[in-house]
């Protein structure tokens, strides 16, 4: 009896999973992918923020990133033995170890590069006659007794300096060493002696016993004070004439610090602690800033002084490095939030569509259970249990994959995101299904979009969303994505709200063309057109939810593609503005001219399509502003005097650019620069070329093309200018906003043939010459010429992990948006697949052919596909056009690169990311309709129209 009961009451969950394994597996895969993406996003953000922080600290100059704790020499009121003891290695080591232990988290030290000792802060004049004396000024040297010399250097020649016999403040002979660079520049040899003056009469003699080579010249040990490694030729600040002298550092033996106490060079005791960024994470940035501020002037400084002495001070530039990283992170985060909200919304809608598909497939089954006395609570509980069995393991597996594949991130944000995906699916399906069965419904009720009338509640909800969308877009256009106080979710959700409003509007407008098209179709003899439009009007596949998913996915993909395209354009433009062409050859100095042989050789290299020699002279003084005479001048367009006059006062100096008009016009056209009016610079009449050796008179008037600001300053009349290329007058005959030869915004372009000095200083090349051959050809003419390549300049803008990580997220957003769009199309078509198969079976019994069935399904899917594709194109374009003024891509494109153009970088429409997903939607809809028609034709009508089938 008990066995019969157990057999009659088979477990519900096991029965359901065995009945529909395909649906359960598909739902699990969808949840797995979505949970993986949801969990991977916060981990990816943490990963690039962590790598960015570590990169910025590791690549920062050691003089900025190192934490240096220093205090003056022990007071003169102390006994000499105590003063000497405080500058010896045992005491310095004890204090250094205590300081390392006292460092507050998350600041950690690179213990292998910690250095401490005694150094002089006031350079001492070295009077040895064999030392180099440029401009007859003797060198000034500093002296340091620093720990770890043998660990961070190798002995190139001689012997290591030692402190034999115990060095005291009264010692007058010590040993030292210098690096190879110092020895080469200052002519120091092993065995040489240098005199170090003292406060007493007798000086200290420093014998150079060895020359050392740094093991890691760029490490913090040698770079915290660059003079340790390399001497420097510096100008004399106390001289009224431009004279220079050498300065460098002599490395004393490690335990010879006491001897520096007798000098007048102001010795200090120091501990240099380089940071170890390997243990830092992205969220540690704010804590690290607070810790550094505390060490410099807060509770941390009090602890340092308790350990190192009451006069100790902490100096470091690490705080500025971390703050710069935080500024870049804060600028990038709002832009990333736009992609996150877009993809998150798409994923949520697709999951809801999946629940709607499952609910539609099981509607009759659950209606039967409800009619036989099943309670809503019982039905909902069973649905929750069977959904949880499939969804929760898939969510956990997605989280596990995210943790394994995306490292360097916190686990709990990803866990919350994956749990949110699982919770949404587990709750959405039972709730949606049970709500459909609160009241009994008539079998076969119509879902006709043509005759449906929106309720008042729906109208109010749509108007509310419209107000939110308008407010978000307006805020984003006015203040941008960065709000100064973090990420504004309403502003970041502007693309989502725009897509939502577009979906609601299109759903309301969709019946209108169907009504208009149905009437003429009804008059035709064939039934295919009329049936397809009638089916399209009744189909739930064209409802608000599928359309919303498609528009969100297409708008997100378009927005992400526009971000990637804008970043690429900004970097290309910045590289072009910096180099001026595909390649550039110029002298190391402004006055270095290129020989004719070099110009001919380089112009004839393989890969060089065109060459334009240019003469550039910077900082040419411009005449006083022309007052009201400034008028409208254009080179290839129009301009107004009022726009230019505002900047006229800033063009006091400008770059003079002498060009060959024809070659320069070709180069500008090749690189997409503004059209250059070469004909206006024709050297005729008073501006004709000068014969060789003849000087130009000030009465010569040269036509010139100027920047808008310079044109506004010079006015219409000829104005005299004095340059190294000759004295003449210029008359502005046109304006252009950009010139290839210089990155300055103030410039004046003239015909080089009309100048007294015609020799070019720069050669601009178009094409793709081999870098090695180009540099070899240039080096053959001397070492005073440099080569710049646009491709190498372009590569400088992608070297930070934070920028690269943000770009990868946007690439993933484009791919995910396109994938979810195709999945939304597939789900919407699968939802009505049983109805279409039944329709085909019934129509075949009435004489419908297979070809007609294929056309019927294709025509039926066409309106929804075209609506989604067209709406997606319009929504993506409108989103980019509306939000472009408020999105600045400078942090993603150019931040962190010295000398880059930091002007605003706006979005632009990317045709591939805008049109390719939309075309994929139409292609997929057509493919699914064709496959479904082919599959239905292989099955007989009897199979589809079984006796007792509710369809």
Question: What descriptors fit this protein?
Answer:
9-stranded mixed sheet; flat; 21 strands; disordered C terminus; 33 helices; 951 residues; alpha+beta
Oligomer: single chain
The rounded distance between the terminal residues' Cα atoms is 39 Å
- Rg (C-alpha, Å): 39 Å
Query: Mean pLDDT across all residues, rounded?
Result: 80
Global outline: flat
How many helices?
Answer: 33
Biggest sheet, open or closed, and with what strands and sense? 12 strands, mixed
Structural features, described:
Helix content is 51%, strand content 14%. The chain has 951 residues and is of the alpha+beta class. Strands 1, 2, 3, 4, 5, 6, 7, 8, 9, 10, 11 and 12 form a twelve-stranded mixed beta sheet that branches.
Brief write-up:
It contains 33 helices and 21 strands. It is of the alpha+beta class.
Secondary structure topology:
Layout: H1 2-8, H2 12-19, H3 21-59, H4 62-65, E1 67-72, H5 80-85, H6 89-102, E2 115-120, E3 124-125, E4 140-146, H7 149-152, E5 153-158, E6 173-179, H8 180-186, E7 193-196, E8 204-214, H9 220-223, E9 232-235, E10 244-252, E11 267-273, H10 284-297, H11 299-308, E12 313-315, H12 318-361, H13 363-371, H14 376-405, H15 411-435, H16 456-479, H17 489-492, H18 494-509, H19 511-523, H20 528-538, H21 544-579, E13 583-587, H22 596-603, E14 608-621, H23 641-645, E15 653-659, H24 661-670, E16 701-706, H25 708-714, E17 719-723, E18 726-735, E19 747-751, E20 762-767, H26 771-779, E21 785-789, H27 790-795, H28 801-831, H29 833-845, H30 850-883, H31 890-893, H32 911-938, H33 941-944
Parallel strand pairs: 4-10, 6-8, 15-19, 16-18
Antiparallel strand pairs: 1-11, 1-12, 2-4, 2-11, 3-4, 5-8, 6-10, 7-8, 9-10, 13-20, 13-21, 14-15, 14-20, 16-19, 17-18
């Amino acid at each position: 009896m008990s066995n019969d009961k157990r057999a009659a009451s088979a477990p519900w969950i096991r029965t359901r999973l065995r009945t529909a394994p395909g649906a359960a597996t598909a739902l699990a895969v969808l949840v797995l992918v979505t949970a993986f993406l949801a969990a991977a996003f916060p981990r990816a953000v943490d990963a690039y923020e962590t790598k960015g922080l570590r990169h910025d600290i590791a690549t920062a100059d050691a003089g900025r990133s190192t934490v240096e704790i220093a205090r003056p020499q022990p007071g003169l009121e102390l006994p000499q033995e105590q003063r000497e003891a405080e500058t010896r290695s045992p005491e310095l080591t004890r204090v250094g170890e205590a300081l390392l232990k006292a460092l507050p988290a998350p600041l950690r030290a690179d213990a292998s590069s910690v250095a401490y000792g005694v150094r002089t802060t006031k350079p001492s004049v070295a009077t040895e006659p064999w030392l180099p004396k440029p401009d007859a000024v003797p060198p000034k040297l500093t002296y340091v007794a620093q720990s770890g010399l043998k660990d961070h250097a190798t002995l190139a020649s001689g012997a290591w300096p030692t402190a034999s016999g115990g060095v005291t403040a009264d010692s007058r002979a010590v040993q030292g060493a210098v690096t190879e660079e110092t020895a080469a520049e200052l002519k120091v040899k092993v065995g040489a002696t240098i005199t170090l003056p003292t406060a007493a009469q007798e000086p200290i003699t420093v014998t150079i016993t060895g020359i050392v080579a740094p093991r890691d010249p760029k490490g913090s040990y040698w770079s915290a004070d660059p003079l340790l490694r390399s001497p420097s030729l510096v100008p004399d600040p106390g001289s009224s004439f431009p004279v220079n002298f050498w300065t460098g550092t002599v490395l004393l033996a490690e335990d010879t610090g006491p001897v520096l106490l007798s000098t007048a060079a102001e010795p200090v005791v120091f501990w240099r602690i380089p940071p170890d960024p390997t243990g830092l994470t992205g969220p540690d940035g704010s804590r690290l800033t607070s810790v550094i501020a505390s060490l410099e002037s807060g509770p941390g400084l009090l602890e340092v002084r308790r350990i190192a002495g009451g006069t100790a001070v902490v100096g470091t530039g690490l705080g500025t490095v971390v703050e710069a990283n935080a500024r870049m992170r804060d600028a990038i985060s709002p832009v990333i939030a736009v992609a996150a909200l877009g993809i998150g919304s798409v994923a949520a809608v697709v999951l809801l569509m999946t629940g709607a598909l499952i609910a539609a497939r099981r509607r009759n089954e659950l209606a039967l259970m409800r009619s036989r006395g099943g309670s809503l609570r019982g039905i909902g509980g069973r649905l929750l249990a069977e959904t949880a069995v499939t969804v929760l393991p898939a969510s956990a597996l997605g989280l596990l994959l995210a943790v394994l594949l995306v490292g360097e991130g916190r686990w709990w944000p990803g866990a919350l995101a994956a749990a949110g995906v699982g919770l949404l699916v587990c709750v959405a399906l039972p709730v949606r299904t049970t709500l459909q069965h609160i009241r009994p419904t008539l079998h076969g009720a119509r879902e006709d979009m043509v005759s449906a009338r929106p309720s008042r509640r729906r109208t109010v909800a749509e108007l509310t969303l419209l107000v939110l969308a308008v407010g978000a877009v307006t805020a984003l256009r006015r203040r941008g994505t960065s709000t100064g106080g973090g990420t504004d979710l309403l502003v970041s959700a502007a693309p989502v709200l725009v897509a939502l409003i577009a979906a609601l509007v299109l759903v309301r407008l969709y019946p209108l063309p169907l009504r208009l098209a149905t009437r003429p179709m009804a008059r035709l003899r064939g039934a295919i057109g009329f049936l397809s439009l009638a089916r399209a009007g009744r189909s739930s596949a064209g409802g608000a939810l599928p359309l919303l998913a498609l528009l969100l996915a297409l708008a997100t993909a378009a927005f992400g593609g526009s971000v990637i395209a804008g970043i690429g354009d900004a970097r290309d433009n910045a590289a072009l503005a910096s180099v001026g062409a595909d390649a550039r050859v110029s002298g190391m100095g402004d006055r270095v001219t290129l020989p004719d042989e070099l110009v001919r050789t380089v112009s004839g290299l393989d890969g060089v399509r065109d060459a334009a020699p240019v003469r550039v002279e910077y900082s040419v003084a411009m005449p006083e502003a022309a007052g009201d005479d400034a008028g409208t001048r254009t080179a290839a367009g129009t301009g107004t005097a009022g726009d230019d006059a505002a900047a006229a006062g800033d063009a006091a100096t400008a770059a003079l650019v002498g060009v060959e008009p024809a070659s320069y016009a070709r180069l500008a056209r090749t690189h997409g620069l503004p059209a250059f009016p070469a004909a206006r610079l024709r050297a005729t009449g008073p501006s004709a070329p000068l014969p060789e050796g003849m000087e130009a008179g000030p009465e010569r008037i040269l036509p010139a093309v100027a920047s808008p600001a310079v044109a506004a300053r010079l006015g219409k009349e000829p104005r005299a200018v004095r340059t190294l290329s000759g004295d003449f007058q210029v008359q502005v005959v046109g304006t252009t906003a950009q010139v290839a030869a210089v990155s300055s915004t103030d410039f004046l372009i003239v015909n080089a043939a009309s100048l007294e000095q015609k020799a070019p200083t720069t050669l601009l090349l178009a094409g793709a010459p081999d870098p090695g051959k180009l540099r070899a050809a240039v080096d053959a003419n001397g070492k005073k010429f440099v080569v710049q390549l646009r491709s190498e300049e372009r590569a400088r803008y992608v070297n930070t992990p934070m920028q690269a990580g943000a770009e990868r997220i946007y690439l993933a957003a484009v791919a995910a948006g396109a994938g979810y769009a195709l999945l939304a199309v597939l789900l919407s078509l699968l939802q009505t697949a049983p109805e279409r198969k039944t329709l085909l079976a019934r129509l075949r019994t009435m004489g419908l052919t297979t070809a007609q069935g294929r056309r019927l399904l294709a025509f039926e899917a066409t309106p929804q596909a075209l609506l989604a594709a067209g709406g997606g194109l319009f929504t993506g374009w409108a989103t980019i056009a509306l939000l472009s003024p408020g999105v600045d891509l400078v942090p993603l494109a150019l931040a962190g690169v010295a000398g880059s153009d930091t002007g605003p970088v706006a979005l632009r429409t990317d045709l591939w990311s805008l049109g390719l997903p939309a075309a994929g939607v139409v292609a997929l809809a057509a493919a699914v309709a064709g496959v479904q028609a082919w599959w239905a034709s292989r099955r007989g009508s009897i199979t589809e129209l079984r006796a007792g089938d509710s369809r």
